[in-house]
Structure formats: C-alpha cells, structure tokens
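Morning, I've got a small favour to ask if you have a moment. I've dropped the whole record in just underneath, so have a look.
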Amino acid sequence: MSEKSRLVVLNDDQWAVLGPLIDECRPRGKTEPVALRETVEAIVWRHQNGAKWRSVPPDLVPWWRAAQTFIRWSHLGVWERLLERAQERGVDLGMAFLDGTSIRAHHKAAGAPKKGDLEHSAMCVKRLAALAAAMAPRRV
C-alpha cells in the first residue's frame, strides 16, 4: 500500500524556515500542539484562498482546530511576534493585495445619512409628532 498523499501548502524548505520561528513565538502550554505543521498549513490555506473556516480541506486538520488556533494566537499576539521575527531574519514573505471585491463593508455603509439630510429628517419628525398628536384619544 502507498501512503495517502495529503495536501501540501508549505513545502519542506518553507517549513524549515517557518517552523523554528513559530516555535519561538507560540504560547507554551501543558501539552504540545497536535499536528502543528498541518494546523499552520490549514490557516495559510484558508487565508490564501479567502475561504470560510469550514472549507478547510479535511486532510489538513479539522477546520475548528485551525480556527481556534488562529483566534487564540491572534488574541495572544503570536502573529505580530512571528511577523517581527521573520522580518528581523529577512524572510521573504511575498506580497498580499486587497481590492474592493474581497473587503466587505458593513451593511449600513450604503445607507448612512448625508449631512444635507438633516432638514428632511427634522421635517419627518415634526410630521410624525403632529400625526401622533392627532391620533391621541381625546378627553371629554
């Protein structure tokens, strides 16, 4: 039988550079991380493809493990320390480009009130107040 081939995101040369840096920066706990290389590869795969966490290929690690590791390390500042160490050592990190198609705005961003709309909204409030006063029950 041949060994099942798995998805490779980082080749051995890339991991040889990145692995020791991650080991310096990651938090120390009671237990060693399970499948650290595959977890980091899943995180890199997700960010390269812009996919959702649940879309991480199952032959790397379970999606929830990659998501938990990424979020936990974000809160602990591991990614910032890793970037600083990589830049200190002159590691070629490549480039990333963002355009408007990959950055979603908040749903209220399209309907934000403009400065000139204040008179209009004040008039609406006056009309609604008059309507409410007209509909109020009258005391006899």
Observations:
- The chain has a mean pLDDT of 79.
- The CA atoms of residues 32 and 125 lie 62 Å apart.
